[in-house]
Design a protein that fits this description.
It contains 14 helices and two strands; from the N terminus they run ααβαβααααααααααα. The protein is mainly alpha-helical. It has a two-stranded parallel ribbon.
């Protein structure tokens, strides 16, 4: 028991270290339309929510709630929402699409300095002073913001993994361009054994991998208790849905 407690403390320390020193999410993974439907958000709603990448909070605004309070244990996530809010306040749709549609802009630095920085809090501005190159597409061969943050780094590495496996890469591209659910199912039947192999299943069940993706030990434990194959089984079932 003492050994397990020590291991769990080490895992928690690892998770805390990653979240204390990095942007984690570059986008939200949930479908906020479902939230808006289930929560019945309207003009009387006063919402408290985790910031994450800020996407969901901005989507909730479509229902014109009275107030949205965004909180996050990681201040870098709040800085990301502040950047999005600053661009929206400037009414610069082209900039918004470059930054968060394409994930890259040749004018990122000049736009930030001229239009955005003054619209942010001191803490958020200090973060983006050091990280606005996330949107330039120049550093470390990462051509888009969506390869930034620890979740983005994982996506970049997984993309490299797929590129090294031409058949899996081709099937993934076909899956993303499929015209119907039936076509998706047929392609995924062929892709799944190439995608969910022993190596990827092993990686998905590692605490380090989940920490990089922003999944705390308590959440991983809850999922692992519900699926005999652990996180890998849960992810596999989710992909099949």
């Amino acid at each position: 028991m003492k050994f397990n407690d020590a291991v769990n403390r080490l895992r928690d320390k690892l998770f805390s270290s990653i979240h204390s020193n990095n942007l984690i999410y570059n986008t939200c993974w949930e479908d906020p339309r479902v939230d808006r439907y289930l929560l019945e958000i309207d003009e009387r709603s006063n919402i408290v929510m985790i910031t994450s990448a800020g996407c969901n909070a901005l989507d909730y605004l479509l229902d014109n709630p009275e107030r949205i309070n965004c909180i996050d244990v990681n201040p870098r996530q709040n800085a990301l929402l502040e950047l999005k809010r600053a661009i929206i306040k400037c009414k610069r749709f082209e900039t918004l699409f470059e930054f968060f549609g394409k994930g890259t802009s040749v004018r990122a630095l000049s736009t930030y300095e001229k239009y955005l920085r003054a619209r942010m809090s001191k803490d958020a501005a200090e973060f983006w002073d050091r990280r606005i190159e996330y949107f330039t597409g120049n550093a470390q061969n990462k051509k888009t913001f969506y390869y930034r943050g620890t979740a983005g780094e994982f996506a970049w590495l997984f993309g490299k993994y797929l590129l090294a496996r031409p058949k899996a890469y081709t099937l993934t591209r076909q899956l993303l361009s499929a015209k119907s659910l039936e076509e998706q199912r047929q392609i995924y039947d062929d892709l799944e054994p190439r995608l969910m192999n022993k190596l990827t299943k092993w990686l998905m069940n590692r605490h380090l991998t989940m920490a990089l993706l922003g999944v705390p030990r308590s959440q991983k434990k809850l999922i692992s208790e519900s699926y005999p194959g652990g996180m890998a089984a849960y992810i596999s079932e989710s992909l099949r849905r």
